């Protein structure tokens, strides 16, 4: 079933061994509709001691308490809303929660400006509708519909990007826990275990602000950006390893000091000050999230693997950094130039190659 | 075995208090011994008084300076209090059994001397960062709690957070194992324990074992335990059968009390003691919580009281409902929207969180996290205010009338009542606006000057450094009849009041003493004048008189001009506004005259100074000018002549001369012609840049509008500047920049218009030119200006 050529396997297939081991070792009570106990879900997310000889890798490296709150929310049948800056592992956490709880993280609705109410409820196969009239076979069920039927978890990504009528469609589902199909005279009750995990982006605030009515139906967990350098480096390293393993990049893993440099640059620009707090920096328009640091490193690995020596060189890193930092041409370019001249240049010989490569690319 | 019963507790633990009462009901002892200062049994009577409201504390203090204090705070859920109350209700004898407070105070003194205060391991040495005086705060004393000292004192001895190193590591290890902070651990595993006594017993013993490696602490603990053991022994010798004795002590001490031998007579005699007295004082939940630096493991007193209510009501399972509904109510009160549905969800979520951790009921951390998730939209900051309200609370205790107090405390409370300030004795900051003027529409004199008397009282507290009231800056300049105060009662303030007992028996007496001490030790007239002003504000003529005589003595000696001017200024306030405070200014007048005269005599010489000293001289000139203007008994002619002289002389600091000119101009004593002549003279070509520009700086320091209106002045300035060569111009720039630095934009604008007129630029054309976009060439010129290097001028 797991095809080697699939670009990205869903979490439950990627970590199937761990999930199976956890299920086998479980002896706490398991909520209806769940595949393992809440504590095992926690172990799955946070990683930890080997269960029956299987090492559980940590999936989310932030606060354990936040994960506990998220899981407890799902235990109480409440919908869960994960909020955070872009790249704070909201979707990542949501996918793994669904994978651990149901063994199925694929019931996803991607929220966009073009998402319609039908994608939350159900739509019709029009050919069949015209041929047979309204009948169950002609109905195309949405992921949420299917989750209700099977008593499992539906995921809604970027809920704040959806138009408000789409968000409103969720309200009745979350409060009544029923979905009516007037065409068929059907009332579909949600089975026990049904819940929704939605994610929303703080940067999108105000795009389609969520109504108070909808917000009230969610328990809200705010995911923070990694609190310290070490945590963030850990996250970046682990994720780059996982990511590149699936990509055949022909490049070696980034060295420790490369990761450190990238994370340092990102943290400083994000904060608008150097790590020691002694120097103020111009902010950039980009978010510079942890997720971007990860893809940046993967990106430079691809560059190094395809066009370079296979080890990430300063030039590869510089190219990737340029792309990540300079988004809004002039302003970012200036901020980046200032950073290069005022901070990086003065960091000593270790940073020198990177500084030179960056300066060249930034056209200064 | 049928020895005495030992009940190990955590010192501020509702569960301990609850189970302790149950245990007492079962045991029916004849004597209850409680860990607490054995020389202060008399305070128990007041603790049991029906009008006493907790939190309250026993405060023991040394009777000689420096004052050291040690504090035993109690909340209603303190097991000690419940033991004492139980004994009182059942007519059973109850006694404290720990070392006397006099020994604690003496030990602390010895510690400080031998160890140095910053040794973290030393009992009592932990300074409380918030505490106003390190010596006397509960923070310092409380430390004991954990280790040695008065366990009782602090809150929980072994369980405090700011423990010395050894125990710290124990707690750190504990936190590592459980993944939760130890307050939460305690609540989950002991507050909720089904068999509290057994759990607490095990915990105490384990803790003792784990932290047995600090020699000094161990020594003090041993002494305390031996002393307690001796108390128990004495009770047994007194004819009470051992099994009828019930001892309440920190769980940490149970093992020690079982094993150690009682203190011998010889050992007892060798304990140091300090002369001490004790009093009861109200305490506050805020102080009790570690938020204010208390660090004693009782972060959430209001929440713990809620647990206590729940235990005595329906059981601990009620606590989540109580907490969350109170939190919601408080959040609503602050103007936020909280639906009942959200509260219900919070209760469910808290339950699920507790289950994940395997505890019976949600603990505070679960409840709060649940509330944040459902009501706070994931942000604790939204709920922070309501959480502080619900967890810490603003409650402060109160004591019945007649409770044993120091006379100063009594005086303080009597005056609070008399002056109707009682409603300000709360933990919240409250604003008090006073109008010192006599109220004409009231009958009694007392009422007519009510606000004035309040002001006297508050100023006296200020002089005594009692942090009950803080004077705010006046909102309206020149309104001397208005005073604005921020009032807030804190346990520290109470301690400071007790401390002032050393200085007198009443607030007024103590303030007089404090002022006299300060006056006698003051060495400059400015200091003495400040003391005089304080005495004046306190409405204490005798003290003011004393300060004045000190001042007079000091003024004989030579004093700097700035000090003389400053002093004269302070005194003049008394002369001008003395009647507002019903103060007779007569004795001050001759002194002001004397100071004024002396200032006039020294001013001219003072003007021979360098650029650095010039600002101080001009400030003094300004003050003297104001002084002369406001007090008509000071000779005007002398002053104006002096100014004319200074303005005229060429050998003085030019800035001072310029300033004298400015004053003359302001007072209408310099006419157009004189100004024109002076400007021409001072700014004529050939005058060095620093002198010319310095003079202008002095001139521009005052009545700018008048200067701006005089076109000729600017023409002269313009001519003068044009006459300077590059080098001299650069030097002049420094002075001119400084002179114009504090002109407002509109003033600068007007000057620019003046100059425009001199140069023949039409203001409208100029405006138009300025509104146009800068061209590339102009931009380049402007850019080159930013490279201008000011370093060498």
Furnish the topology, listing elements before pairings.
The complex is a heterodimer of chains A (364) and B (793).
Chain A: H1 11-14, H2 16-25, H3 38-46, E1 48-51, E2 54-56, H4 64-75, E3 79-84, H5 90-102, E4 108-110, H6 117-120, E5 122-124, H7 126-132, E6 139-141, H8 143-150, E7 153-157, H9 164-176, E8 178-181, E9 186-189, E10 195-201, H10 212-216, E11 218-223, H11 229-245, H12 256-271, H13 290-307, H14 314-325, H15 329-342, H16 352-361
Parallel strand pairs in A: 3-10, 3-11, 4-7, 7-10
Antiparallel strand pairs in A: 1-2, 5-6, 8-9
Helix pairs in contact in A: 2-3, 3-4, 3-5, 11-12, 11-13, 13-14, 14-16
Chain B: E1 5-9, H1 14-27, E2 31-37, H2 43-47, E3 56-62, E4 69-74, H3 79-89, E5 93-98, H4 101-115, H5 138-142, H6 144-147, H7 165-178, H8 182-191, H9 196-210, H10 215-237, E6 245-250, H11 251-259, H12 265-270, E7 276-282, H13 285-288, H14 301-312, H15 319-333, H16 340-357, H17 364-374, H18 380-391, H19 407-418, E8 430-435, H20 445-448, H21 450-463, E9 469-472, E10 482-487, H22 491-499, H23 507-521, H24 525-537, H25 541-556, H26 561-577, H27 588-606, H28 614-630, H29 636-648, H30 654-666, H31 672-682, H32 689-699, H33 704-709, H34 711-723, H35 726-741, H36 745-759, H37 763-771, H38 776-785
Parallel strand pairs in B: 1-6, 2-5, 2-6
Antiparallel strand pairs in B: 3-4, 3-7, 8-10, 9-10
Helix pairs in contact in B: 1-3, 1-14, 9-11, 10-11, 15-16, 15-18, 16-17, 17-18, 21-23, 23-24, 23-25, 24-25, 24-26, 26-27, 26-28, 27-28, 28-30, 29-30, 30-32, 31-34, 32-35, 34-36
């Amino acid at each position: 079933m797991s095809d080697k050529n699939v670009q990205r396997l869903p979490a439950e297939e990627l970590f199937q061994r761990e999930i199976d081991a956890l299920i086998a070792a479980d002896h706490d009570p398991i909520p209806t509709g769940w595949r393992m106990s809440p504590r095992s879900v926690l172990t799955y997310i946070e990683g930890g001691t080997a269960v029956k000889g299987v090492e559980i890798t940590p999936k989310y490296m932030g606060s354990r308490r936040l994960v506990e709150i998220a899981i407890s929310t799902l235990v109480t049948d409440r919908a869960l809303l994960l909020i955070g800056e872009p790249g704070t592992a909201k979707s990542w956490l949501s996918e793994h929660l669904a994978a651990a709880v149901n063994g199925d993280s694929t019931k996803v609705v991607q929220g966009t400006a073009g998402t319609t109410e039908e994608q939350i409820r159900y739509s019709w196969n029009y050919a069949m509708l015209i041929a047979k009239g309204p009948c169950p076979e002609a109905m195309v069920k949405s992921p949420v519909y299917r989750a209700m039927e099977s008593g499992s978890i539906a995921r809604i990504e970027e809920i704040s990007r959806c138009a408000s009528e789409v968000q409103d469609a969720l309200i009745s589902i979350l409060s009544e826990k029923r979905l009516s199909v007037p065409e068929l005279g059907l009332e579909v009750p949600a089975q026990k275990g049904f819940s929704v995990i939605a994610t929303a982006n703080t940067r999108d605030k105000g795009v389609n602000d969520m109504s108070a009515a909808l917000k009230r139906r969610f328990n809200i967990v705010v995911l923070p950006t990694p609190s310290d350098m070490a945590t963030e480096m850990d996250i970046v390293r682990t994720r780059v390893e996982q990511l590149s393993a699936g990509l055949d990049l022909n490049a070696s893993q980034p060295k420790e000091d490369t990761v450190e440099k990238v994370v340092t640059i990102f943290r400083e620009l994000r904060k608008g000050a150097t790590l020691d707090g002694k120097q103020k920096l111009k902010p950039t328009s980009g978010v510079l999230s942890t997720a971007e640091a990860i893809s940046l490193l993967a990106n430079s690995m691809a560059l190094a693997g395809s066009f370079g020596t296979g080890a990430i060189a300063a030039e590869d890193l510089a190219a990737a950094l340029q792309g990540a930092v300079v988004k809004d041409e002039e302003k970012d370019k200036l901020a980046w130039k200032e950073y290069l001249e005022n901070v990086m240049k003065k960091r000593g010989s270790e940073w020198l190659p990177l500084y030179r490569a960056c300066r060249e690319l930034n056209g200064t | 075995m049928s020895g005495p019963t030992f009940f190990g507790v955590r010192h501020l633990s509702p569960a301990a208090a609850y189970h302790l009462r149950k245990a007492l009901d079962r045991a029916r002892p004849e004597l209850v011994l409680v860990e607490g200062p054995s020389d202060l049994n008399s305070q128990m009577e007041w603790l049991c008084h029906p009008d006493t409201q907790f939190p309250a504390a026993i405060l023991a203090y040394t009777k000689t300076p420096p004052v050291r204090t040690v504090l035993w705070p109690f909340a209603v859920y303190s097991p000690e209090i419940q033991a004492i109350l139980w004994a009182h209700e059942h007519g059973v004898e109850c006694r404290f059994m720990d070392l006397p407070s006099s020994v604690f105070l003496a030990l602390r003194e010895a510690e400080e001397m031998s160890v140095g205060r910053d040794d973290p391991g030393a009992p009592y040495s932990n300074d409380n960062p918030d505490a106003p005086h390190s010596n006397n705060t509960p923070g310092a004393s409380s430390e004991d709690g954990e280790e040695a000292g008065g366990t009782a004192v602090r809150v929980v001895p072994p369980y405090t957070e700011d423990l010395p190193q050894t125990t710290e590591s124990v707690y750190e290890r504990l936190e590592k194992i459980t993944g939760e902070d130890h307050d939460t651990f305690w609540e989950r595993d002991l507050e909720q324990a089904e068999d509290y006594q057994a759990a607490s017993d095990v915990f105490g013993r384990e803790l003792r074992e784990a932290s047995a490696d600090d020699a000094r602490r161990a020594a003090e603990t041993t002494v305390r335990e031996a002393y307690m053991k001796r108390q128990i022994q004495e009770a047994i010798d007194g004819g009470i059968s051992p099994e009828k004795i019930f001892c309440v002590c920190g769980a940490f001490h149970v093992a020690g009390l079982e094993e150690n031998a009682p203190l011998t007579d010889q050992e007892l005699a060798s304990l140091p003691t300090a002369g001490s007295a004790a009093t009861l004082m109200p305490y506050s939940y805020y102080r009790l919580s570690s938020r204010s630096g208390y660090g004693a493991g009782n972060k959430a007193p209001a929440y713990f009281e809620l647990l206590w209510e729940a235990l005595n009501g329906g059981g601990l399972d009620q606590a989540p409902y109580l907490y969350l509904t109170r939190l919601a109510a408080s959040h609503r009160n602050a103007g936020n929207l909280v639906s009942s549905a959200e509260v219900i969800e919070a209760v469910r979520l808290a339950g699920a969180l507790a289950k994940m951790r395997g505890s019976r009921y949600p603990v505070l951390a679960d409840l709060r996290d649940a509330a944040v998730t459902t009501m706070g939209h994931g942000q604790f900051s939204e709920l922070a205010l309501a959480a502080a309200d619900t967890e810490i609370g603003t409650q402060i205790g109160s004591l019945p009338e007649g409770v044993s107090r120091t006379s100063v405390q009594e005086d303080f409370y009597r005056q609070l009542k008399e002056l109707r300030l009682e409603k300000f004795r709360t933990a919240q900051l409250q604003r008090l606006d006073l109008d010192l003027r006599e109220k004409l529409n009231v009958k009694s004199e007392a009422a007519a000057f009510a606000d004035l008397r309040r002001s006297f009282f508050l100023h006296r507290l200020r002089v005594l450094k009692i942090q009950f009231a803080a004077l705010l800056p006046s909102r309206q300049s020149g309104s001397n009849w208005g005073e604005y105060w921020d009032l807030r009662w804190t346990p520290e303030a109470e301690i400071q009041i007790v401390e002032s007992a050393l200085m007198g028996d009443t607030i007024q007496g103590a303030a007089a003493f404090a002022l006299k001490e300060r006056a006698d030790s003051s060495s400059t007239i400015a200091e003495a004048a400040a003391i005089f002003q304080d005495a004046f504000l306190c409405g204490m003529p005798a003290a003011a008189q004393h300060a004045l005589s000190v001042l007079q003595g000091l003024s004989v000696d030579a004093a700097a001009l700035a000090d003389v001017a400053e002093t004269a200024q302070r005194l003049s306030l008394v002369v001008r506004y003395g009647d507002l405070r019903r103060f007779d200014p007569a004795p001050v007048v001759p002194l002001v005259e004397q100071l004024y005269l002396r200032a006039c005599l020294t001013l001219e010489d003072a003007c021979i100074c360098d650029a650095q000293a010039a600002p101080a001289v001009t400030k003094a000139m300004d003050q003297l000018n104001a002084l002369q203007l406001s007090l008509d008994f000071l000779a005007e002619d002398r002053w104006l002549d002096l100014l004319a002289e200074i303005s005229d002389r060429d050998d003085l600091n030019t800035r001072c001369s310029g300033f004298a000119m400015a004053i003359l101009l302001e007072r209408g004593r310099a006419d157009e012609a004189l100004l024109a002549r002076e400007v021409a003279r001072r700014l004529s070509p050939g005058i060095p840049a620093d002198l010319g520009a310095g003079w202008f700086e002095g001139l521009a320091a005052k009545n700018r509008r008048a200067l701006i209106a005089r076109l000729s002045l600017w023409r002269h300035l313009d001519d003068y500047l044009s006459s300077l060569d590059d080098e001299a111009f650069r030097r002049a720039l420094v002075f001119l920049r400084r002179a114009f630095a504090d002109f407002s934009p509109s003033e600068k604008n007007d000057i620019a218009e003046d100059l425009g007129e001199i140069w023949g630029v039409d203001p409208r054309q100029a405006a138009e030119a300025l509104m146009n976009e800068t061209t590339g060439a102009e931009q380049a010129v402007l850019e080159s200006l930013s490279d201008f290097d000011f370093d060498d001028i």
